[in-house]
Backbone:
């Protein structure tokens, strides 16, 4: 957010003025002109002639020579050099500063970062596409985010990067300079005052080779330009009053000074009035309606918080609703609701007590008003069933959009990281995509305990080993070459990330995810399927060894086992037969549990001549049940915090939990090694408007209404990034000591 205008400076700003570009030149300026290479002399002369007069006495010849050389190189070596003539180069690449920020040599440091970002692009590197790519990735790359707690508004790039915080001005300066560092013309744009008097704002314009385009710095809208939260406001500006006009910075002598300065001593620059470019799409407020901007604030800190806001009229008739912005948004970026000019209107945070409700008299007025609602940010807010559905919907899309933005680079690279390990992955797609989304088959290669070259070849083999009729067939490359390469502790979070990204970028149905593997990959299925069963619709183990793992967690996961009858190494064939008997017995004892198909391919060794491929269509018949009525959860040596609709705070190897849900009652049959159990619920599982009972060994551990809570919705979405895995309510019960 730009600083408030300094009145004396503001008055001068709109007068036809001279910035004394003809002021005497210092010895440093003379030295720069004398030492500049002949090919760069015209650019140096232009820069000296148009630089703010305040800089003439302070900048060194070394600074000017270094900057002009770097700017010229960025321009001449860019792939779009033919679209940027010399006049545009001087207008929007050559200047060493935008407004009043600290003068520094930013061109080379930013060039290295920015060039890396645009070099990795998968799309055609046009001026517009590269600018949009920089806006999407630069701020994550540098760790800079919007904050009103930044040290100053007009920060230089190094100041913003050092603190990690910047205003809209600082963010704009950083993006502009990054664009210029790779030869993309860019300029600083600002409005001194919104027409409603709520403040000012700045953003960025990009030259796309034919025209100027705009974007909000650190407010990327994917790969699109000319979009942003402020576009509607900008469309409502006018230049009838100078303070309501929109200005683009230029170093050309236009006779109009850029009006937004942070101190009276700050260097001055010229401006171009670009208001007309923004006002053609002004938002029209219908007759009889009004625009209300709503901010929800923490009662104690006054900080903005994100909450669902509802506007109602007489008889509780709902007129509008939306989600307010928190402190990550620009100070003037509020929830905007168009509502009738009726009286009274009630604006409330959904589910909050009457103390957090404000009433607005909509009669008369300018048609635009701003209100603040106050809540105790930490206070729990119980939701109705309908409200929970709406909150879920309002939270899910922004979450997925943000995840799509932050995960895009890693997914495009086809390498996922967790800590110090990396997991490359390959995939291809088969068949027509169903309406619910594609299936995903995660196929783990063999090898293990072998040189990298051997495991690499096994990975190549796995890519061609199976072919589903429909779905994404994905073969990851194990991060290590160890014997247990598919069941080390880093595999679980990497597979979670892989599934999340496939949902985001390949439209995978989270309820149609399958895991399979051959040999050492089969070892991985033996280990991962029981402990990660709630991620998958089915699993298929081929020619693997279970080691110490047990099948308890497979209660709700269809499991295929294929083993060569002569595969005697490590007694795989004997153990395969034992597991076949074990699964048969478990299924017989637990009605509806442990669905499986165990096949011993007699006469076959470790290689089953592809007879095991029948497991692929067998798995594809199944859809994940994330809310089964009975759960058996046995913690392996790699532990999990969450399993289906259960969670534990302190997971430990060997913990065993068995829980059954019937009607409004949840029965804990076993909770070995667990002191507290969290039970997640939603309205598809039981009626949350009625009392729920939790019992164990004849003792009632809980009985009552379980409130639907926004924080549970947010938490369960963030845990897995799975929109179908959201729960709305939870009960935490203490497990009694054995009698």
Residues:
């Amino acid at each position: 957010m730009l600083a408030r205008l300094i009145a004396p400076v503001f008055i001068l700003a709109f007068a036809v003025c001279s910035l004394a570009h003809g002021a005497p030149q210092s010895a440093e300026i003379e030295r720069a002109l004398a030492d500049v290479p002949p090919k760069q002399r015209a650019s140096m002369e232009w820069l000296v002639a148009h630089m703010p007069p305040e800089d003439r006495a302070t900048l060194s010849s070394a600074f000017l020579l270094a900057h002009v050389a770097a700017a010229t190189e960025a321009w001449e070596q860019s792939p779009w050099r033919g679209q940027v003539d010399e006049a545009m180069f001087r207008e929007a690449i050559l200047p060493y500063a935008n407004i009043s920020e600290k003068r520094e040599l930013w061109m080379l440091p930013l060039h290295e970062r920015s060039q890396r970002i645009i070099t990795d692009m998968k799309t055609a590197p046009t001026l517009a596409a590269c600018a949009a790519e920089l806006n999407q990735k630069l701020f994550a790359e540098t760790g800079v985010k919007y904050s009103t707690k930044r040290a100053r508004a007009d920060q230089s790039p190094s100041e913003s990067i050092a603190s990690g915080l910047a205003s809209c001005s600082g963010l704009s300066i950083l993006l502009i300079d990054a664009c210029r560092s790779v030869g993309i013309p860019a300029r600083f744009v600002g409005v001194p005052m919104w027409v409603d008097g709520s403040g000012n704002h700045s953003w960025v314009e990009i030259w796309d080779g034919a025209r100027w385009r705009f974007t909000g710095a650190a407010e990327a809208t994917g790969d699109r330009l000319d979009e942003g939260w402020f576009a509607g406001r900008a469309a409502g500006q006018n230049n009838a009053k100078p303070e309501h006009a929109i200005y683009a910075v230029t170093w050309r002598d236009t006779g109009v000074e850029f009006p937004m300065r942070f101190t009276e001593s700050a260097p001055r620059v010229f401006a171009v009035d670009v208001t007309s470019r923004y006002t053609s799409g002004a938002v029209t407020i219908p007759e009889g309606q009004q625009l209300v901007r709503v901010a929800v604030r923490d009662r104690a800190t006054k900080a903005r918080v994100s909450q669902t806001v509802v506007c109602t009229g007489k008889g509780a008739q709902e007129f509008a609703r939306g989600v307010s912005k928190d402190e990550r948004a620009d100070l003037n970026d509020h929830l905007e609701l168009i509502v009738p000019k009726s009286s009274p209107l009630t604006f409330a945070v959904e589910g909050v007590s009457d103390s957090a409700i404000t009433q607005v008299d909509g009669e008369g007025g300018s048609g635009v008003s701003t209100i603040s609602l106050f809540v105790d940010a930490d206070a729990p807010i119980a939701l109705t069933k309908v409200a929970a559905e709406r909150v879920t919907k309002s939270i899910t899309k922004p979450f997925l959009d943000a995840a799509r933005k932050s995960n895009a680079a890693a997914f495009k690279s086809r390498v996922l990281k967790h800590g110090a390990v990396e997991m490359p992955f390959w995939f291809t797609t088969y068949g027509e995509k169903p309406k619910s989304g594609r299936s995903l088959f995660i196929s783990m290669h063999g090898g293990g305990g072998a040189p990298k070259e051997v495991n690499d070849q096994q990975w190549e083999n796995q890519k061609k080993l199976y072919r589903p009729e429909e779905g994404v067939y994905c073969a990851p490359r194990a991060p290590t070459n160890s014997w247990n390469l598919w069941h080390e502790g880093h595999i679980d979070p990497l597979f979670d990330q892989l599934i999340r990204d496939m949902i985001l970028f390949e439209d995978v149905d989270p309820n149609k995810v399958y895991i399979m593997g051959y040999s050492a990959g089969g070892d991985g299925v033996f280990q991962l399927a029981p402990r990660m069963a709630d991620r998958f619709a089915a699993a298929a183990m081929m020619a693997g060894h279970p080691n110490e793992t047990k099948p308890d967690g497979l209660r709700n996961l269809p499991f295929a086992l294929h083993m060569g009858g002569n595969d005697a190494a490590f007694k795989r064939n004997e153990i395969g037969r034992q597991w076949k008997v074990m699964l048969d017995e478990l299924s017989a004892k637990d009605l509806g549990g442990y669905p499986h198909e165990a096949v011993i391919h007699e006469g076959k060794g470790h290689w089953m001549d592809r007879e095991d491929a029948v497991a692929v269509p067998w798995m594809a018949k199944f859809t994940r049940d994330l809310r089964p009525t009975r759960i058996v959860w046995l913690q392996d040596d790699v532990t999990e915090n969450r399993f289906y609709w259960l969670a534990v705070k302190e997971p430990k190897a060997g913990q065993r939990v068995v829980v059954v849900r019937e009607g409004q009652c949840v029965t804990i049959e076993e909770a070995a090694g667990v002191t507290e159990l969290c039970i997640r619920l939603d309205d598809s599982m039981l009626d949350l408007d009625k009392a729920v009972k939790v019992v164990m060994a004849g003792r009632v551990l809980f009985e009552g209404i379980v409130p639907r809570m926004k924080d549970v919705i947010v938490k369960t979405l963030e845990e897995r990034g799975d929109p179908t895995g959201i729960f709305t309510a939870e009960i935490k019960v203490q497990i009694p000591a054995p009698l």
